[in-house]
What does this fold into?
Amino acid sequence: MSRPAVLITRRLPSSVVERLEEQCTVQMHDGPEAMPADELRSRLADAQALMCLLTDRVDGAVLDAGPGLRIVANIAVGYDNIDLAAARARGVVVTNTPDVLTEATADFTWGLILAVTRRISEGERTLRRGEWSGWALDFMLGSDLRGKQLGIIGLGRIGRAVAARAGAFGMRVACATLEPGAGAQGTADAAWTRLALDQLLSTSDVVSIHVPLTPATRHLIDRRAILRMKRRAYLVNTSRGPVVDEAALAWALGEGLIAGAALDVYEQEPRVHPDLLGLENVVLAPHLGSATVETRTAMADLAARNVLAVLSGSAPLTPVAG
Ligand code: DGY
It folds into this structure.
């Protein structure tokens, strides 16, 4: 019997590729850039499984290019790059990589919260430019977290993991959930105050976003939402870029309408809104939330296990509810 073919759109850890190669014929795009869309379509012709990243758009046209496809295994927890309805219509299973990246992403979110409230990146830029003239009582003052309110938008796994760390910094937690499917799985800790979104925005000192990108969450944080925030508040986004209207955020930061922001994700990655690039009160990270050796390996490994399960006729481990 011929071995099933797996197409992988980016280089993966060798341990993961070897696991796949025990049972499948593996083709892997080796270049430093994302696989061009036309190459993706042409290489899918004989594939039974596709392992892809959030940088790969998998729509009906891509799925049609792989008539033998049985599974699309996204190596990410977010799956807004995949047209789920198109996959369902063609009987293709879609899987993602939840859980294995929760703690790394929550840690990174706190890194951003500390970086922006304590002006770490801004301070380092000043120092590297040779503009630091020595310790001074009033030099580059940030803002304490202790006693303040952390507002979590979206109580999915990552939102809850971020909230669970708040006690270590002496913060109280408020949370707002949106409609089911927009980051609302799981329960809130009894100590977390549930608020409507507008109330959360107007009372929180740090607002951290943890919703998936859906039609309902696109530009959830727009000019109107930002104007509800306190002038001394900070906005942090480690979810998906289009949840925040970048032009509105850049305007508000430039006008001093909020104290600062920290972003790991952007509306049109890898492009960053040019108005953000010139601002000192925003920390800009290049989508690093889950970027640790251990976590990225675990993500690739989970995606591979999903592929092997489906190709052997078993249920996927982490199917995406469509
Ligand atoms: C995801 O998994 O969706 C992140 O954005 C990348 O880890």
